[in-house]
Amino acid sequence: MIVIRKTLLALAITASVLPQTVLADANLSEIEKRLAQLESRLQKAENRASNAEHRADLAEQRVAALAASAQTTASAAAAPAASTSGAPASAPAARPASIEAAPAAQTAKLGDEKKISDGFEFHGYARSGVIMNDSAAGTKSGPYLTPAGETGGAIGRLGNENNTYVELNLEQKTRLGNGATTRFKVMLADGQQSYNDWTADTSDLNIRQAFVELGSLPTFSGAFKDTTLWAGKRFDRDNFDIHWLDSDVVFLAGTGGGIYDVKWADNVKSNFSLYGRNFGDIETIDNNVQNYIVTANTFSGPFQFMLSGLRAKDNDERINSSVRSDNAGDKGVHTMVAWHGDSFYGLAEGSAKTALLYGHGLGAEVKGVGSDGNLTDQADTWRLATYGITALGNNWHLAPAVLAQQSKDRYIKGDDYRWVTVNARVLQEINENFMLAYEGSYQYMNLKPMGFKDRQDVSGGFYKLTFAPTFKVADMGNFLSRPEIRIFASWMDWDHDLDRYASDDAFGSSGFVAGGEWNFGVQMETWF
User: Fold this and answer.
1) Smallest Cα–Cα separation from 437: which of 390, 484, 491?
2) pLDDT of 97-132, one tens digit each?
3) 71 falls in which pLDDT band (50, 70, 90)?
4) Helices marked H in 79-141 — which ranges?
5) Measured between alpha carbons, how far apart are the two ends of the chain, in Å?
6) Can you name the residues that pair with 340 across neighbouring β-strands?
7) What secondary structure letter does DSSP report for 354?
8) Phi-psi category of 99—alpha, beta or left, where left has phi over 0 and alpha has psi -120 to 50?
9) Could you tell me where the Low complexity compositional bias lies (predicted)?
10) DSSP of 59-92
11) Going from the N-terminus, what domains does the chain have, and what CATH number goes with each?
12) Residue 280, Cβ neighbours under 10 Å: how many?
């Protein structure tokens, strides 16, 4: 009996405990299931985080590439001269570390490399306006208005331009997976004197630039690492100008090829180029004699040293028209020493540049290198340019410039062309969208052309004063920011002797003689 009771008690206890055990087993199974689901979700989250990190790395590489591409055109945005817009470009940025580390065996040919950035850019320059005299009639104007203008004597452009000039720049830039860069640029340009809306019959539309650059080639090393090869038709990257005078300090251009940024030391680098030109002015081609220009351009800190040799076979034997020299040379040399300052001559914040140029023979056209085929083999030219930009305080800003040149035996043995221009532009900020611009210019010239092109020996001075209320969207004190819309009034006068210089120039023409001339107008100017 006792045994039966114990058995029944054991069965009762088992019956009471068994449901709890079964329930515990069920709960444990559910927990394990949920843990498995949580682990799966965590694995998916880790995968998504890994993918996001990979995309972030690619994005950083693209941003670095785009920044490097942007640096290649910064400069001047540097401001272009009126007839040029070539933009200095910086050396491409270093390649991303992940690309540097790629094994050489995995580096494919340039054309097969995967692109990590690919961008199209559109840049431009334009100016357009109308000008009249105090009788509301047509007038004479232009930065090279004076007799000295024939040999590069600019007098200042503010309130002194009546044309429409447009440059359109299209660029395609690519950065490849092996670190190399490519750049293609084409520039279209047109200039017009007509005020009409349809001017196709008198259009000067042409392609001023069309070239390709290859940069940071991975097989280049040592001094050639991060250099840039180029070929085509272009303005040299390192040209520079005095924008408010509309005068290049030096302008090297044509069709050819070269290499930029050969680095000899941390702050010493050189450019080498070969340009070909046909003689004529900078835009046109008017004979078959070809001029070849070999140039070495070296930068050391703020200093620039430029040396060019020129050769135009048979230029001294060509048949000359009445407007050409009968003693043209067939070779020459051109040199320049320049200082590019990061302050206003060390006196104040701002910027300043100074250049001394010399040319002999075909190199005696020291501004537009290789562009004048009339120069004699004995021609000698010296040119000095200095200019700067600074803030004066109390919303006033100053940009002075001095340009001087002497050229002897230029077109005929014994001739002598001397001139000097002193110019200053002052800006007065009124509010964030309006300012007043003032410009004054004085030019003295002593010209002895010895009868070349029936020019007469003259000497004397020229004066110009301009007042121009100006509208901008912002950045009022910046001399080199645009767009601007200006209303202007200019007064000009010059010595009577200058009216005799030529029968086909502005001075001495009907209704435009010494004694004082007023010009009025409105103009826009922009670049981007």
Assistant:
1) 484
2) 333 334 344 434 434 456 666 899 999 999 999 999
3) low
4) 97-100
5) 111
6) 353
7) E
8) alpha
9) 82-108
10) HHHHHHHHHHHHHTT-SBSBPPPTT------PPP
11) 72-104+115-527 (2.40.170.10)
12) 14
Residue with tokens 């703020």: 302
* DSSP tag of 504: S
Pairing of strands 181-192, 303-311: unpaired
344-387 pLDDT per residue, tens:
999 999 999 999 999 999 999 999 999 999 999 999 999 999 99
Give me 168's structure tokens. Answer: 């359109």
- Secondary structure (DSSP) of 432-496: TTEEEEEEEEEEEEEEE-TTGGG---EEEEEEEEEEEEEE-SS-TT-TT---EEEEEEEEEEE-G
Give the torsion sign (CA, 33, 35, 38, 43): negative
Could you tell me which residues come within 8 angstroms of residue 365 by beta carbon, excluding any fewer than 6 positions away? 359, 371, 372, 375, 381
E strands along 312-415, which residues? 331-341, 350-361, 380-393, 396-408
Whether the bond into 143 is cis, omega within 30 of 0: no
Half-sphere CA count of 382, side-chain side, radius 13 A = 5
The whole-angstrom separation of Cα 488 and Cα 478 is 19
Question: How many other CB atoms are there within 10 angstroms of residue 91's CB atom?
Answer: 18
* pLDDT at residue 221 tops 80: yes
Quick one: which H or E segment has residue 426? strand 416-431
* Cα gap 103→105, rounded to integer Å: 5
* DSSP H or E run through 30: helix 2-71
Using DSSP's 3-state secondary structure scheme, residue 100 falls into: helix
Nearest to 396 by CA among 364, 353, 421, 425: 425
Looking at residue 273, its amino acid is S
Report the sign of the C-alpha dihedral through residues 20, 21, 22, 24, in that order.
positive
Reduced to 3 states (helix: H, G, I; strand: E, B; else coil), residue 42 is: helix
